[in-house]
Amino acid sequence: MARISIVIATHSRPHLLPRAVESAQKAGKDVEVIVVDDASTDATAEVCRGLEGIRYIRVDQNQGVAGARNVGILASSAEYISFHDDDDLRLPGSLDRQLELLEANSEAGICYGQVLVGDMECKPVHGRQPERLLTGDIFWELVSWNPIICISAVFRKACLFRIGMLDATVPGVDDWDLWVRIAESHTVVAVQDPVAIWRMSTPSSNQGSSTPRGLLSKIARHQSRWLQLPRARAATYGKRREARRRFLNNASDWLIWNAATWLQEGALQYSRKSIIKALLLNPLRTIRPWTFKLLLKSLLGSVESSHHQYGSQKPEIEGKANT
Predict the structure, then answer these.
(1) Is residue 322 part of a domain?
(2) CA distances from 202 to 35, 134, 205, 267 (A)
(3) Vertex 265, ends 259 and 266: CA angle to 5°?
(4) Full residue range of the structural domain in which residue 296 is found
(5) pLDDT 10s per residue in the chain (323 long)?
(6) 64 in the same domain as 151
(7) Closest CA to 198 of 252, 148, 246, 248
């Protein structure tokens, strides 16, 4: 029996599957690769028939990314699960290192690592994320923001027996929601090396993270459900309020950083909408002098240099809804 099952949910992007499957198979020993074809309407089935060593499952009605991942989980045979978006790549041997760490830490429910941020061809050109790996009891940190990029995570399937499956009602946030629910009662560990290449979104890349404004609004609404989990309810009102404040601060900072990045690229409409959403979510945070300095700097120089100069830490947000 396989040690780990990798679930690749896909919808009508057959050209991406061969390299995704190859990278998954090279990421570890005893790997079960499950490709869930989420009602594709093109050559996905034909391409999958030509891929060796995979389990191919097709659903006839589109389930969305969370639903497709749930189908893969139910079909899996291994003790550990990892999700793999079809446009990302796993690094060779990375799963073995993560499994060793999980097996050495019986209280841990999730192991993750950094990713190399890639361009549209998934070539690493944009550094590493997250900049800082959080470990141990990170429940409250996860309620406030998400440092765990989906492809980088491995989790124990046994956790699902207590908390349930992925929530299909929150597409684009389903992985983050799962990390929060696991972290409520389990610790988190991390390897200190990059484990994958994560394709960075652009305004035209048709990824869930290409439209962060709507995604952040969805998360802002969904966070109230996290604050009703038993552990959160048992905390003080001040603790819950602080978690909400931290999320709104992170969200507005990320939107402004995002706006500055695309302003420099000439995506003016995209930048304007991100600024408006930041103002709606957190007006006092957004109108700080740092915001205006960063936006001006993006027109005159490097966003990265202004990011360091003015002390903003770009928060990580993950959510490439690809099915």
Answers:
(1) no
(2) 25, 27, 5, 10
(3) 85
(4) 208-309
(5) 899 999 999 999 999 999 999 999 999 999 999 999 999 999 999 999 999 999 999 999 999 999 999 999 999 999 999 999 999 999 999 999 999 999 999 999 999 999 999 988 888 887 899 999 999 999 999 999 999 999 999 999 999 999 999 999 988 899 999 999 999 999 999 999 999 999 876 555 444 444 566 788 889 889 999 999 999 999 999 999 999 999 999 999 999 988 888 888 788 888 888 899 999 999 999 999 988 888 888 877 654 444 333 333 455 544 444 44
(6) yes
(7) 148
242 in Cβ contact with 145 (< 8 Å) = no
CB contact burial 266-285 (16+ within 10 A = b; e otherwise):
ebeebbebbbebbbebbeeb
Q: pTM for the complete prediction?
A: 0.89
Examine the domain organization and report whether 137 and 227 are in the same domain.
no
Examine the domain organization and report whether 289 and 221 are in the same domain.
yes
On whether both 68 and 185 belong to a single domain, the answer is yes
Pick the closest to residue 241 from 223, 219, 218 (CA basis).
Answer: 223
Two tokens at 173?
């946030």
- With beta carbons less than 8 A apart as the criterion, state whether 283 and 291 touch: no
State how far the Cα of 250 lies from the Cα of 144, in Å rounded to an integer: 8
